[in-house]
Amino acid sequence: MPIPGFGSVLKVTIVSTPTAIGDIMSIDGPSMSADMIDITAMDDATKFRSFIPGLIDGGEVSFEVQMDPTHATQQYIQDSLVQGGIASTGAVEVFSLEWNDGSSTSWDFSGYFKSIGPAAPLDGIVTQTVTIQMSGAPTLP
């Protein structure tokens, strides 16, 4: 059954409380991938390469928000990025991406805010794109 994007929520844990990031317009990712290790030998019977999976990269989650410098979660994101993690300790952030599927399906993961950047189109509103680098294995349904 298709899941509508509208109603999906991305939360970041702030002082032990999962807090929805407000004014999100779109969410992309996570873009997980596995390294491929070439195990082709010089005496293989064919000229085709052989591979085995290596390390898995959780990838990135990016999202676009309506820029609001007074919004508490947007201020938190900027502070966390500039200070290098929770309260400048470098501690990993905890996130939950909750899909609007009627059954509270979520993807939970840890990571760091990697980037934030505004965009001001001629005929639209000012937005910010935020990127999270996942760290470690996510918890998937």
Bulk shape = elongated
Q: Give the helix proportion (percent range).
A: under 10%
Spatial strand sequence of the major β-sheet: 2-1-7-8-9-6-3
Question: Unreliable stretches, pLDDT < 50, 5 or more residues?
Answer: none
Radius of gyration: 19 Å
The largest pleated sheet is described as: 7 strands, antiparallel
- What is the number of independent domains? 1
Instruction: Report the span from N to C terminus.
Output: 16 Å
Q: Which series of helices and strands comes N to C?
A: EEEEEEHEEE
What amount of the residues lies in strands? 35-45%
Q: Indicate the structural class.
A: mainly beta
Overall number of strands: 9
Q: Mean pLDDT, as a whole number? A: 90
Count of helical stretches: 1
Write the layout of secondary structure elements.
Layout: E1 9-14, E2 17-20, E3 24-28, E4 33-38, E5 51-57, E6 60-66, H1 72-83, E7 93-98, E8 106-119, E9 127-134
Antiparallel strand pairs: 1-2, 1-7, 3-6, 4-5, 6-9, 7-8, 8-9
Task: Describe the protein in words.
- The radius of gyration is 19 Å and the shape is elongated.
- By secondary structure, it is mainly beta.
- It contains one helix and nine strands; from the N terminus they run ββββββαβββ.
- It has one domain.
- It has a seven-stranded antiparallel sheet with strand order 2-1-7-8-9-6-3.
- The longest helix has 12 residues, at 72-83.
- The two termini are 16 Å apart.
- Strand 7 (93-98) and strand 8 form a beta hairpin.
- The mean pLDDT is 90.
